[in-house]
Amino acid sequence: PELSPVPPVPPAFPSPSPSDVPPPPVSDPSGVPAPRVSVPSDVPVPATSVPAAASAAVVESDLDELLAQVEGDYITRRAIVRRIGPKSPDDDTYEKRLRLNVVARAINRIQVKAAERFGLFARPDNVDRYVEMSSKKEVEDAKERAERAEPGSGARITFALLLADREETLEEYKRDLANEVVVQSYFDVLTRGAPGKRPQFDPEASPGDVRRLFERHPRAFDVKAGVRIGFFIIRPGDVLAEGKPDFDVALAESKRRMNELLVKFAAGGAPNVLAHAYGVGPKQWQVTEKDTFIERQEGRTLPFEAWAFDPARKIGDTTIIDAGGEVAGVALIERRAFRGRSFEEVSPELVGVIRNVRIERFRNQHTLDLLRTATVDPRSLLDVIEEQIRDRLKRLDEHPVYKDIRMR
Length: 408
Hints:
It is a single chain. The protein is built from 12 helices and 8 strands. Helix content is about 45%, strand content about 10%. By secondary structure, it is an alpha+beta fold. Helix 1 (about 75-85) packs across helix 2, helix 2 packs across helix 5 and helix 3 (about 125-150) crosses helix 5.
């Protein structure tokens, strides 16, 4: 597979459809697929308060709490919960994720308003096409989550059921998706132009740009050694709760179960079925996706790295390691050897990297400009939005490769 060690530009502006030039495929150490609408999880966001303009509003329940008013659009807790789901009892990051999604929705609304002033609106046929694509993806993701928790439970899931579960109508879903579509169209026009509208900048890479980036980072685009693994955790505490006399007995039983699980997994057993049978929760196992490899990274040491990257290791090998009082099992699925890459091989990839980084810089800078005239209540939310966008630009400037990619 064509892989790049350089991480993709963070998707600051989610789109329901891939861009014309998608980021190069990359290695993802986690192997976890990204959600449909992704929001950075490492940005500190203060809690937003109910705007003064909404003080007279009747709040019937917590879900009707008004979190913000942006360009005439009311952002309620209910609207955000529809996107991130209800809070589970053991989720101590829920409020943070909710506030981060408030920021994401506010940014989207500011961009939608700019697109409307620009004379752009989502065409119904385009929206219908994206609804079909997006709903299909949501159903697939929901079925995968259900199968992780309980094998066989995903068969009943439909898009209509997903909408009903979050008390959302199809029209509300289409409206939110139309906003994403019009924002993507807006930045496409700003980037490429349209009849009667000139492009505001040129993201394309010249041959000199490509050559200079490669000469500055000749080894950054080599294919690094990598592994694919199956990783499972059994908690002795859960086994102890089944009635075992003491922790040592529970620990021994946990290791026995893990050995059985790993043998069956290495023989081709379905990971979700095995996890369910041996009491491994849906968040306690992970199998690296196909064509995705875990690579060693400077400053990070995973507990299984020394074992997995041992040259003597063979496909199908398994081991049990101590994971902070938990029993962790690892099975090696696939290995990828290091391979150097020439300029001729990586140059098409570099064209895409340069283009995507330039577009990311432009989108963030343009959104900062939009904040100057945006109508936002509470006003403190503007400061949070600006801080988050500037942090995205800062991460580009601190990246070892992206820092050398500038606007033309």
